[in-house]
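Good day; I would like, with your permission, to put a structural problem before you. What I wish to show you is a protein chain and, alongside it, a tokenised description of its three-dimensional fold. Here, with my thanks, is the record as I have it:
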Amino acid sequence: MPSEPPLSTPPEEGHSTQKFPDEVVVALHEAGITATCMPIKLDDGEWQAAFFYVLSPDAPCLSNGKINGGPFAVAMDADLHEHDNGTMIEIGLEIVTPIEPCRGIMLFLTGHTSTHFEALSLLSEQDDIPLFIGDQYCNTLWQQRVPLNEAFRLGMVGLVNEAVTRDAVIRMTDRYDPDAVFADTLAKRQMI
């Protein structure tokens, strides 16, 4: 696991004035994305996968830079996408914020970086997942824990096992290319 310092979190759900961890901010900005799932260490010292979601400044759920409501219902789904050059796992996230839900999609390649595999593995083991919602500067506006049921955890185990097995075969044929998988997936999404 990476060796980032623990993320200090308030003991209760709700508003916070801290920023997302530096490695999360860098990952979001480098990739130009607004949602990610990364392994982090919380105050209790345990590694956990956590969701980070960045709201746009004009998000309907914001009022004077603060988020209205909470805690929020959260829906998740996961799917496996087969590509000639690799296997991608997609996790869709919908946060039922006031006025209009916030939606995000996170893409994972188990053989791309160790962070992808670690986050997916942790999701298959955790009872819940920390969710951090932030502004465009990655200041935490809201945080809560989202329960993960056994069906979701077993589903993640199945998706990870299928992706790893499939990618092992692709690697033997020298066709494994995670950058091509990402590029093709993003190109297809932009056409929609």
